[in-house]
Amino acid sequence: MRVYAPLLFLAIGAALAWMYFFLDRPHLATYPEPSTRIPHVYNGTSSIASIDLLVVYFVPKDMASVTQDEWRPAVKKAVDNLVAFHTVEFAKRSTIAPYIYETPIIGEDSSDTYDTNDTNKGNPAALRSIGDELTERLERGDLQSLRSHFKEMPDIYVVYEGVGSSGSPGGASLINRKFLTDPQYASYGTSYFVHEFYHTIGVPDGYNDLDQSLTSDIMGLGRRTPLEINFLSDDTLQKLGI
Ligand SMILES: [Zn+2]
Fold first, then answer.
1. What burial class does residue 62 get, using C-beta atoms within 10 Å of its C-beta: 0-12 exposed, 13-18 middle, 19+ buried?
2. Which DSSP helix (H) or strand (E) runs through 55?
């Protein structure tokens, strides 16, 4: 038997060599590595691999005297929760770099001016006027030193001493301070906070004008449930390049 062993190996080797040279070489299909895809704004192209987020506490000038310090730990906790939620949902492929400005920013105008007569649908009018004022003050006014912390203009999250909860694809969002501090909002206030942030990267609402939820994730029904059991739908993540 032992004498046949070299012959056997020779035969196998010859067969392999024949297959290698005369049969078609295997062609492995190539797919892009999932990890090389860059996450982007919703249905868009701008990268969201790293998101600079400036978080400010904004107080209309008529409210300056009633301001207390309870916002600071509440905002820090909400931001920590947002960063943790985002990191998990995006499997670390998109991260948020937050910067919380510790000094309240007093508005140039009073509540009446920011809120207009219509504060429905989350008070988007306040978000627009406060966003415009902050951009101007950061670029050319008294907040230029704050602006210099960032290479590019960051997304801005306004914790507002006034009514509302709103987010815009232009990179700004706003939430009533009370959602983060008042016990009546304890179970879902942070989910509202995170929900509004996702509007800044273009994610649309998951509910309609009649307040009927169309999705079960944080953009729809989930916005009124605790963050711990919340998520972004697979469809939404896909449209964000995940
Ligand atoms: Zn919304």
1. middle
2. strand 50-59
pTM given for the model: 0.83
At a CB cut-off of 8 Å and minimum separation 6, what does 144 contact?
138
To the nearest 10°, report the CA torsion of 211, 193, 53, 73: 170
Ligand 1 centroid to Cα of residue 124, in Å, is 11
pLDDT in tens, 188-205: 999 999 999 999 999 999
> Which residues contact residue 162 at a Cβ distance below 8 angstroms, ignoring those fewer than 6 apart?
60, 63, 111, 114, 115, 123, 126, 176
**Tokens in use for 178?**
């009370």
How far is ligand 1, taken at its centre, from the CA of residue 241, in Å?
Answer: 21
Which of these, 195, 210, 206, lies nearest to 235 by C-alpha position? 206
**C-alpha closest to that of 82 among 186, 165, 162, 190:** 190
* DSSP structure class, residue 122: T
- Residue 150 Cα to ligand 1 midpoint, Å, equals 27
Candidates 82, 238, 77; CA nearest to 155 is 82
pLDDT 10s digits, 12-70: 767 666 666 666 655 566 655 555 678 999 999 999 999 999 999 999 999 998 778 89
**Cα distances (angstroms) measured from residue 188 to each of 44, 70, 121, 228:** 29, 18, 18, 10
